[in-house]
Amino acid sequence: MEKTYNTIKSQVDLLNQGNVELAKNDIEVSKLLNREIERQHKTLSLVASCCTVSPSILYAMSSTLVNVTAEGKPGKRYHAGCEFVDEIEQLAIDRACEIFKAQYAGVQPHSASNANYQVLSAILNPGDTILGMSLDDGGHLTHGSKVTFSGSYYNAIGYHVNDQGIINYDEVDALAKKHKPKLIICGATAYSQVVDFKKFREIADSIDAILMADISHIAGLVITGRHPSPIDYAHITTTCTHKQLAGPRGGLILSGNDADNIVPGKNITFRKLLQKSIFPWMQGAPAVNNIAAKAVTFEYAKSKEFYDYIGKIREVADTMTNLLIEKGYNIIGNSTKNHTILVKLPESITGIIAEEALEECSIIINKNRVPGEQRSSTITSGLRIGTGGLAQRHFDKKGCSKIVDIISAILTNIKILDEKNYELKDEIRVKYKNEVSSLCDEYPIKNYCEKN
Ligand code: DSN
User: Fold this and answer.
1) I need a surface site. Which of 52, 93, 286, 341 has the fewest CB within 10 A?
2) Closest CA to 138 of 52, 210, 216, 211
3) Residue 175: pLDDT band by 50, 70, 90 thresholds?
4) From 45, 47, 49, 387, mutation site for ligand 1 pocket: most ligand atoms within 8 A of C-beta
5) Model confidence pLDDT, tens digit, residues 345-394
């Protein structure tokens, strides 16, 4: 019998058929998808923002929920046919509130960048002043970088880290008093130390500013109590759902004690303003399939397996940091308190060269600017290492030691030609690519992201 949507009742059958039909109808994409699976298995990802999602999250993302248009929120939609979608979104909201101990959760943002823009544009008027961490010091593009909406529609002032790579809170306070920003943003994309959310709130309160915390990089540490939570210190917290949470690509807006307080200067509560800031202000219909995957992610985040996985992220980060220091590498802050290790490379090697040479040997790390950076963002003087990927492979001390040896050997064997160009001998590339391949087999990606 011909297979149609009416005859295929189960999502599993539909996905299986999709697999067969894609291979038949679009061999190019089908082949590339399979090559990408192999790439992920045979490379070691040390990218601070990457994780591997579980099959159940992948499955929820691929579900037929993608067929539903559902503008609005549970119980108040602008489209009919949302009976099950309402239940799914409400489940995601309730679970997000539970794991973050929040009073409000908006689960519709397509990404954390979108979530940040939703908050900024709802709270601020064009030209208002914001104070965020400078991009060079570890802040995110959406926290006021001039090349983005956040730095061109608003008067963005940047704060910095001190010589030890720690946020200079005296400078934050002084800049706040001087510029009187309407919004202060804390949280980072390349910062290896603890963010003092309490201190940020005290500074915000001293000038009647609103505080937004972006915890995209540390959400798992926050949920498991390994990093202080901003939920009741910041008026608003944002995060993505795909980094430490190992969920679908997407964003989340949260609020704690301030959820039902009036937004300064506006006749509306944070809860209501945040809800409107997503829809209709900035987004149309949500990606309900991703909301289902977020619900699965948040349920998993309550589990012992998730707690252990985040613990492993920290363990691997400390082990790798010590091993890199033993090899003579300059680690910003000389330590890490989260999943990120910031390496200031020897003067002769730029970040772009290190990134490319390591990728030739199947190690995926990204270049990063370092405090006091003199080079451009496409060149840089540093690397940002993240340990989520290694934690999902259950790396132990022996594995960490091996990977640090390989990184060091590759970087030592590069012949530098100029800031962007280098040579790596074929025999070196082949030798270390094979060693990384063996490590990938020895430490396969395990299913950390499913409850046993
Ligand atoms: N924010 C970027 C990063 O940290 O890598 C992308 O998610």
Assistant:
1) 52
2) 216
3) very high
4) 49
5) 999 999 999 999 999 999 999 999 998 889 999 999 999 999 999 999 99
